[in-house]
């Protein structure tokens, strides 16, 4: 596999859930959704050479999905429950905005995780990096499983508040 195809595959793997959700919002039949999603994947790989790495990938992929959905809708033109082009465009804009929000939230999460210290950092690492359940964490930390679960909930609440605060600060600027 050449490097361009490898990069395209990596980007597509990250974008696929958002693109799939966009397609599902327009295409009712699940078999048709799968077909459209496959067509989008092929189109993304085939046209990846035209992608500008300086711009966000997900909106670019949703643009390709929008064209593929448009082709699908034109083929299904007699169906009275098919969205028109304007509705599909509005959905594409909404999914683009949602993808940007999620991307920003992940950036904020990284910052907030970096600010954790001590026991909170250790518990989050054991739970999410090591994929341990509270009972297993309890045996490593001299805590009860119940106290681990409560401590993890407090840390998650702290992270959620930190993300919300950073998002608010970004919107003010």
From TrEMBL:
Residue span(s) of domain RNA polymerase sigma factor 70 region 4 type: 107-159
NCBIfam families: Sig-70_gvs1, sigma70-ECF
GO MF terms held by the record: DNA binding; sigma factor activity
Ranges where the RNA polymerase sigma-70 region domain occurs: 16-78
InterPro entries named among the record's database cross-references: RNA_pol_sigma-70-like, RNA_pol_sigma-70_dom, RNA_pol_sigma70_ECF_RHOBA, RNA_pol_sigma70_r2, RNA_pol_sigma70_r4_t2, RNA_pol_sigma_r2, RNA_pol_sigma_r3/r4-like, WH-like_DNA-bd_sf
Keywords assigned by UniProt, alphabetized: Sigma factor, Transcription, Transcription regulation
Flavoprotein as UniProt keyword: no
GO BP annotation list: DNA-templated transcription initiation
Domain of life: Bacteria
The protein's name: RNA polymerase sigma factor
Species name: Rubripirellula lacrimiformis
Family of this protein: Belongs to the sigma-70 factor family. ECF subfamily.
């Amino acid at each position: 596999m050449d490097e361009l195809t490898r990069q395209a595959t990596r980007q597509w793997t990250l974008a696929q859930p958002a693109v799939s959700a966009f397609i599902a919002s327009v295409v009712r039949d699940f078999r048709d959704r799968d077909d459209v999603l496959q067509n989008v994947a092929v189109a993304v790989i085939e046209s990846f050479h035209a992608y500008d790495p300086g711009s966000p990938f997900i909106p670019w992929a949703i643009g390709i999905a929008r064209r593929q959905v448009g082709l699908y809708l034109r083929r299904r033109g007699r169906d009275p429950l098919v969205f028109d082009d304007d509705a599909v465009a509005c959905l594409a804009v909404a999914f683009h905005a949602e993808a940007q929000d999620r991307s920003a939230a992940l950036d904020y999460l990284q910052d907030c995780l970096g600010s954790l210290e001590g026991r909170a950092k250790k518990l989050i690492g054991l739970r999410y990096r090591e994929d341990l359940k509270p009972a297993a964490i309890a045996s490593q930390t001299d805590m009860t499983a119940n106290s681990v679960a409560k401590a993890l909930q407090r840390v998650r609440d702290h992270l959620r508040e930190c993300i919300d605060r950073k998002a608010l600060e970004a919107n003010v600027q």
